[in-house]
């Protein structure tokens, strides 16, 4: 008999939703976390979209540790001297059943892990999993940990061990790892009073704002973000690794550059940096996804690269929660049928294929590359902002130019070829249309 | 850029994060590989600035204030120059308002 029916490695949103789902069926499940508490190793770029929790925790919004409910969502383009925002506000997002929330991951992840514990999962913190135990046939039957006599066995292991997933790599689930598939996220939590935040961001009560930024990253492909916590702001940048490595500005200098932009400085000035943090993001979507299951093993969350970085949509926690839940359902079915081979666990793949987890990734498979491409990063923001400036700039006594003429002139000035513009428009339309 | 941001020192910046340091270094750098490396990607990319070039062409590093992000071994183009594992359970970075 194994020590547990299922061992879940990593008590992030994927692991905790997996453990919660398994514990509710009455099966034994261990949830192993290397940090001193769940969430202590985790940071992100800002918004949890918890709709999937409806299936696990009815009226989760009454208990989830939320900073603010996002009622304003902005997408901002920055050049050195210009900014252009699309700013959307919905009052509906400020009431149940809500849409998205800002939350601190150490609070959110800890809360979710404790839901699994309440359901009967065994949470073991401060324990690093150092490898997988396999049998003579190569099937995964347990884990090695850094505790004395720390080996544990299980019918199924679910690896939710995050973006670096040493377990998935050790087991050969990633054919190759390419630095170009990752971005580095660095973030400052900036303390400011609630009143000042409410005033600067035009929100009240527990309403919040999420601003996603294209440009403002000192020429390194990536993006920026600012979002509101209750009495702090989170400001950061994500930076494509090979581009970051190929230039000379350090990550904190790139944040400083963003914060000094004339469109950003008035939002953040006067605040005190109360925490600096960094984390990798699996950014390439479907293209980088590993093999998702093998005999006795399932991979979920960031460990399976289930992070959606598609420009206008930047999501990850929801993909983690859903994939963890589906992995758990597949593990439970396999155990009940007495077949935990890859074939026995194949329900996982089906559940992912049938829902947003793989459907969104499939539809948006070209988006991450497009969004991080040199043209989208370095040419189109300048094109769009200069067209808008041409539109609104009053140049009397000259008459107003037509929009088509402005676009043509600016495209020529910036050296953007019509053919490239058309190609990118088609890719964009196929992804987002 | 229109305004100059009065930034905090790097030391003060790192002091905002909590590190429960273990005596075992979880990063090991093979200095032979670093001596021949001209790109030095880890030096610019590590968000904790843990990799410092020395005048004799090597790299000194410290592991104590590591965010455990993995950037260093990902950007390193010298196969095996940076060995990186997670620190012992319960140790290393502890985030709070992230």
TrEMBL record, chain A:
Annotated signal sequence range: none
Sorted UniProt keywords: FAD, Flavoprotein, Oxidoreductase
Keyword Transport listed: no
Cofactors, names only: FAD
Gene3D superfamilies linked: FAD/NAD(P)-binding domain (3.50.50.60)
Molecular function per GO: oxidoreductase activity
PANTHER family (alphabetical): ELECTRON TRANSFER FLAVOPROTEIN-QUINONE OXIDOREDUCTASE YDIS-RELATED
This protein's name: Unannotated protein
Lineage: unclassified sequences, metagenomes, ecological metagenomes
Automatic annotation (TrEMBL), chain B:
Residue intervals of the 4Fe-4S ferredoxin-type domain: 25-56, 57-87
Keyword vocabulary terms for this entry: Electron transport, Iron, Iron-sulfur, Metal-binding, Transport
Gene3D superfamilies cross-referenced by the UniProt entry: 3.30.70.20
Keyword field contains ATP-binding: no
GO molecular function, one term: iron-sulfur cluster binding
Name this polypeptide is given: Unannotated protein
Organism listed in the record: freshwater metagenome
